[in-house]
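Input structure tokens:
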């Protein structure tokens, strides 16, 4: 089962842009259903820390919770920059 999951979702490199779905509880009718983020860190368990231009997501994500974006729009440096 784990081998099948690893084949379907290969590891994502740090600095790669991803599209993460926003839960329906947190968005209104006209709010976007997904957000663009960048992979900032991968821990030993294979969980990903994602960052946006506005800050980091408050939870770690598994690879099945996001998909890889076609282009790189955000860099890790922009995501780590806290105002």
């Amino acid at each position: 089962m784990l081998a099948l999951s690893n084949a379907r979702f290969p590891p994502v490199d740090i600095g790669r842009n991803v599209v993460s779905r926003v839960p329906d509880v947190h968005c209104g009718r006209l709010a976007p259903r997904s957000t663009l983020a960048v992979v900032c860190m991968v821990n030993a368990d294979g969980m990903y820390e994602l960052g946006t231009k506005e800050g980091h997501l408050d939870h770690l994500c598994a690879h099945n919770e996001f998909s890889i974006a076609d282009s790189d729009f955000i860099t890790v440096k922009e995501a780590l920059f806290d105002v």
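Strands lie at 17-21, 34-42, 48-52, 55-56, 66-68. The radius of gyration is 13 Å.
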